[in-house]
Amino acid sequence: MLRHTLNTAGPQRKQCYMYDILDHIPQQLFLVYSVGLQLETRARTHNISTAISLQMQRQAFSGHFGLTRATSRLFLTEKNNDLSRPPLDLAVRGRNRSSRCVHRDDTFISEFSALAATSVTMDSPRAVYGHTRKSLSTRSRFPEIRSLNADNLVVHTETETKVSRSWSRILEIRLMDIRSVPWCGWLFVYTFVQFCFSVSRCLALKALVNMYGSPEDYTVGVKSAALSLGFLEDFVCTTYFTSALWIFDTFKHSVGERFGQREGWTTEIIGGVATFAVSWLLFVTLMAPFVADLVLVLYRDMRFTLGLLATLIRERHYLKAAPISSEEVQAAYGAAAGLVVVGTFFALVRTWASWSDLALWNPTRIVPSPESLQTRKISVKKSTMRSGKGVKYVELALEEGDDKSPEDEDDIIDKPFSLNEKHTRQKCTVYQALRVGVVLMGLVVVPSIVVAVRCVCSPLVAFSALNATLNELLNHAFQPAPIEVDISKLSKGTNEPWVEKYIDRSELHDRFGDDTLFRRTTGFIGDLAFDVKIDPSNPPNVLVIGVESFRYRDSRYLVGDADPSNLFEGTNMTITPNFDRWAKRGVALRNIWSSIPTSRSLESILFAQIPYNSNVKTGITGGKKETKLSGLPQLYKEKGYETYFTTGSSITLDNWNIFLRTHGYDVVWDDTVMTKMAERNLNISREEWHGEEHRGFGWGVHDDLSFQLLGDLLVRKARMQKEQQARGDVKKPLFLTHYTISSHEPYESWPTWYSKTAKPDFSALYKGKPHADRIQRYLNVRYFTDMELGKFMDRMQEEGVLNDTIVVIVGDHGQAPEIDNANLHEESVTRVPAAIIAEGRLGDAVGLVLDDAAEQYDILNTLADITGLPEEGFLQTGVGRSLKRKIPFGERAVFSNDPMRKMSIVRGHQRLRYDAVTDAMMLHDTEMDYHMTTDLLPFLSPKEQDEWKAWRDYGRRIASYYVKRWDEKCLLAIKCRG
To answer: Which pLDDT does position 260 carry in this prediction?
Structure first.
């Protein structure tokens, strides 16, 4: 009857009925009703089952005040018009009875009183809803709640559907009362994310310290400092993550309030899916860079950056041929799977548990509002007043923004609390300012403090604590900057500009400024280490051959019979017999160093520069159309040479195809050109490239065909030159750069005919070793390229080409197939073989082996000194010296950097490896300690150590010089505009 009365009443009459009810229930019910109504509204907004929220509110009514289920249901199921308004507002208006409800409906009040008295027997759902519980969905079947009386409360439960205790506990967790701990969701997110960060850090900490320091640096102090700073960075990162989740939850509330009443279950389902998807996506976005960074540290000694990701995307077509071991692949899959599982768990908790909703609370609520302060003050005062019947209860404001408060003892509700308008406005302004301050504190001030803490920490600690996600988000603010070397120290004790330190004294030059290497080289002076006879009227052709992945230790001739590091396992074999044979006929360079990968060797060989110091790009990345350069192509073009670049490889990697054509080469042949030429000139069918014959592979055309086509070009050009001279015309010599490709990682492809060819037994070099299969493949393909090099050189000799050609053979960089992370074997990766062959021109210098330290960037000045300069000299920005000139052994230092690993300086047979930022340094003997197991630096005198530190500063300074000049496109400039 009551339900019918309420449903058929108009809005105004229904409001009056509710006022009547409120006038006849205890004062305490205001608070409970308010809480229950808020819980239901929030539950509906947050896409939690309405049935669940109703059960919670019924428990609040009947459990605390002796109301029966039917009575409480009467209140909580009628949510129309005023009943859906904020609960305290309804309660206040209940006590301040509307003037339009002056006349009470005594019949209604009587029925309500009777219902309250007899409701103990009304425990059937049909009494209110008109249907049985069995007709309800399973989500709506909850324990029945019954009270015996209001003073001595006893609660019993009757369950028609049996629920296991475990499920009850789960339900209790899900529906945990969050009224007293609304910040529970924030606590969960912070705790969970910080735990994930901390566990990951502990697993990779040792590798991080070793990466930037040495095993001796892995001390308790360093570990504690790194973990502490890391915790702070993780906290800042978690704050940004939690803020993003809070924004989503708040937005979801707004959407739920707008559409929840109309859409019902649809809104709830959509909200749940959205919560899961957004939570999962944000968590994975947060953790993926961090996890990827640690995996790279463990397996590659690299750090994750967005630049690295951009490089991988840019060069994605070459990833299938990248040197990635199965162990690394498994580790990557394992890390990804773990991240997905943990992210899924996090998202499920956020979707499943109502208390994980971040919109229920935010840190700005730490600041109490003026209204809440005033309400609490008055409520505390009034709660101590006693009437004849006992304590007089006063409602408390449960929500910020309640604009009504009790005023005096006699009429607490009837008279709204009023403040001076100006004073109130001032308080509100201060309140809002404090809330903004809390936001700024969390999002700006705390991160700034952490950055300041990072700045006072050592670079070793800072790098070990680095949170890759946060570092990328804040534009590398948490990454120590490269050390700026004081230029004045470099020129201390001399009157020369600092750049003269990097220009060899045998070079005659005119500098264009005191702060630039841009200069005009006009000649070379000094005693000769060897000489090459050149007729200026008949300039020779110049051929530079860069051999892919060719390392010093592959040549027995260069290693020597003594083999102090036992690189050949006690055997007398060599892997490169043809290179050795031709090196003996020329001048061999056994102590020449390089950088990795091949693009960096191009910078050094062609332009005599220390390569661009970055592990995500090189100086030529992107083609660098607008960057002006001067090196070997420009030198020989000025001397009247034709310039060719040839390779069997694809040259789209790092945009070589753009760079080479715009920086001095008239003609460029790549795999596409050679494929067409081989099909036309060598009768290679298209099916043979990737068919059973394997004439091509992922990187391009194999070396047998590329050397064949290169030889055809040289023979044809040699004949044309002879014809020119016979006619009395000026000879048009050829400058040609050729790069091989077959020996590129992962060493899995060679022509089928080579597989059937007899080869030396290299088993002594790989049997019983880790990665024996990979070592064997490397040795086989190295021997293949050497075989084709020998065939090419023999053919050129037979055709008479070598008598008119200066040939330089050099490894582009080395490799270390013996281990997963090749960069760890730094000497194997950066020490390469080289030889200068000048048939009939060397005289007594044939068979000479230069043992002093040299670098690929010395090739420019060496060839310029051999073949001669243009009349007005030539422009350059290099740091090389002419190896044709003699200097005392061990006096000169060369800079050989591996941005993937460490920077290094070589003097004589000693190599200093150091970090671009941290203080870590180690010194090794390159002959006796090839694998770098003994650090010699601690055994040196303080004076000797200081000397190496000075060279370290020279290395840092020149590396930063080239980075700046490349970035600002001012290599051929006196000053950079930036």
So the answer is: 64
CB atoms within 10 A of CB 112: 20
CA distance linking residue 627 with residue 603, whole number of Å = 13
Closest alpha carbon to 557 in 516, 529, 590: 590
CB neighbour list of residue 893: distance below 8 Å, 6 or more residues apart: 853, 905, 906, 907, 951, 954
Average pLDDT on 785-791 reads 98
Inter-CA distances, 561 with 160, 196, 873, 925, 930, Å: 92, 54, 43, 18, 15
Res 262: pLDDT: 60
Q: List Cα–Cα distances, 116 to 74, 122, 613, 850, in angstroms.
A: 11, 10, 83, 108
**Helix, strand, coil abundance in the chain, percent, nearest 5:** 55, 10, 35
* DSSP for residue 545: E
pLDDT tens, residue by residue, 650-669: 999 889 999 999 999 999 99
| CA dist list (Å): 959 to 315, 616, 696 | 25, 15, 38
Q: Which of 282-311 are b and which e, b meaning 16 or more Cβ less than 10 Å from the residue's Cβ?
A: bbbebbbbbbbbbbbbbbbbbbbbeebeeb
* Amino acid code (one letter) for 377: K
CA dist 266 and 274 (Å) reads 12
The pLDDT of residue 916 is: 86
Cis peptide leading into residue 760 (ω within 30°): no
What tokens appear for 821 in the block?
Answer: 């992370």
Tell me 356's DSSP state.
Answer: G
Q: Which of 765, 751, 748 is nearest to 707 (CA)?
A: 751
The whole-angstrom separation of Cα 466 and Cα 647 is 41
Q: Are strands 519-524 and 874-876 parallel, antiparallel or unpaired?
A: antiparallel
Instruction: Say which residue the tokens 């047998």 belong to.
Output: 704
What DSSP assignment string belongs to 691-717? Answer: STT--EETTEE-HHHHHHHHHHHHHHH
**Neighbouring residues of 356: CB distance < 8 A, sequence distance ≥ 6:** 184, 185, 188, 189, 349, 350
Structural domains in the chain, CATH included, are: 1-170 (no CATH), 184-361 (no CATH), 487-967 (3.40.720.10)
DSSP 8-state class, residue 610: P
Which whole number is the average pLDDT over 359-374?
79
Mean residue pLDDT of the chain comes to 82
If we measure between CA atoms, which residue out of 875, 353, 433 comes closest to residue 632? 875
* Tokens 């056994």 sit on residue: 590
Residue 526 region by backbone torsions, left for phi larger than 0, else alpha for psi between -120 and 50, else beta: left
Mode of pairing for the β-strands spanning 893-895 and 903-907 = antiparallel
